[in-house]
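Hi D.,

Good news: the full-assembly prediction came through. Inputs first.
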Amino acid sequence: MAANTSTNEEKPLNSGPEVPLNKKKKWNKEYTWGYLFIAPPLIGFVLFAFLPILYSVYVSFTNYDLYNDPVWIGADNYTRLFFEDALFRKTIVNTFYAAVGIPLGMIVSLGIAMALNQKIRGISIFRTAFFLPAVSSVVAVTLLFRWIFNADFGLLNIGLGFIGIDGPNWLTSETWAMPALIIQGIWGGLGINMILYLAALQGVNRALYEAADIDGGNGWQKFRFITIPSISPTTFFILITSTIGALQDFQRFMIMTEGGPNYSTTTVVYYIYNNAFSYMEMGYASAMAWLLGIIILIITLINFKVAQKWVHY
Amino acid sequence: MADQRNWYQSKEKVRKMKKLFSYIFLTIGGLFMAIPVIWMISTSLKNKGDIFTMPPEFIPMNPTFDNYIRIFVESDIVRGFMNTMIIILPTTFIGVFAAALAAFAFAKLNFPGRNKLFFFLIATMMLPGIVVLVPQFILFRTIGWLDTFLPLMVPGFFGAAMAVFFLRQFFMGIPDDLIEAAKIDGLSYFGIFRVIMVPLAKPAIVTQVILGLLAGYNDFMGPLIYLNSPENFTLQLVLASFRGYYTSDWGLIMAGSVLALIPTLLAFFFAQKQFIEGITMTGVKG
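Then the structure:
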């Protein structure tokens, strides 16, 4: 590290040039200022993240309703999660079901990015159109989609009616509520992924395509053997961040369907939220949060492990 | 030779076909993105009767601002907007200042344990936010901060790990010579930060401020958990409450959504570069 080598060159103000440098570095002014400058984020981290997290490990082994002191119940919360709570299992399934939209959205955004990665007129208009949802508020966008998915007067069913399809009662049907939320999720995520892919595509080495042209490679082969490997780090990045995001998604589910009908759109984080803030089960909610945290960690590790096989840096 | 010419011609044809195809694809995609937004604006300009006409009018026959007027008269949207501003302005500016100072120290100053402390801080970014949510709530409840703006502000004052991370990247690109020269000129460490670092890192700092304001403005989870009294509601909470108050008064709900989007859209048009840069860097939306 370049920054580290400069430590040795720098001498404390009080030591003359003839005095040999002590092996043990003396305290100097730079240390004081360094520690002072980094103190706020570190203190904030300890106060508002590190200590609360430690405390939540303890709470997850207790029964705590906020009004009475926590009561130690050992691993009861965890056994309840694993063996007794069918609803928890359902919310896990729902959460993974909702994540189906990720690969779908990635394919579409790659397609858009490839289409945009040419000398095309009006590129900034297209870019803006695709990117706008990324800066919009979840609340506003979800309210909009509640209206679009309205069974009788919503835009989607009117559109489907034009091509002779009798659209379902999207948000009040156990079968169709989740697909509706997946569609909304894809709509909202396209812009960011598209921008990331566009940046990656612009970084692909042109010489590789030229070499393929000389060897007579066709369009599909170029895509399969040059484009896909070259942009694999971006694909991996999108996959990781979208998975972590999707597993913790809940606000739009709350506004769109309130988790219904019959819990068909209750995600894990929504269930945690309900346990903590509606049923006042702080211990149980903490245990669930920890389990989800561990699941996220494991999935991320597996992703990293598998990535060694297909990501080319 | 003829072969070669044919090859070029067919190549040109393929290129044109590809372009045409791209335009069709982009137009369909663009419409898929834009139609919901146009529909939102169109609905917001209709009176109750026109919303439910069949077939629907994309361009309202009798456009009206009634929904917007009603929102300003009936709802708490203005107070919600003010509450949001009271929360996000000081939090973002102080937070980015703290983060920039720390990022400067992590990038350019030497002190024992620097890299270890940096990784300790960055570890926060790996933790799923949901794990922190419940204990943080218990903490703020214990110290009596529920139904105040403090839980939404105070943690932000200390500077976010994400901002430290990206500003540090930026500061590392600034040559050390500049700092050495400034030291010889007798500038203090804070002076170096203020006089040399901040002006050079301005684009990165502006990006962080914009992303911070956007995240705060759009935040729904935090206010939802910590604020109970309607007079404390932020804009997003007021907007979410429309869902219950005005169940199927879609014109009014859409007008509220349009109003809530206007500030972010304006910000987006004026700072498009920063938005795209910032979001590309972090890969997350606010």
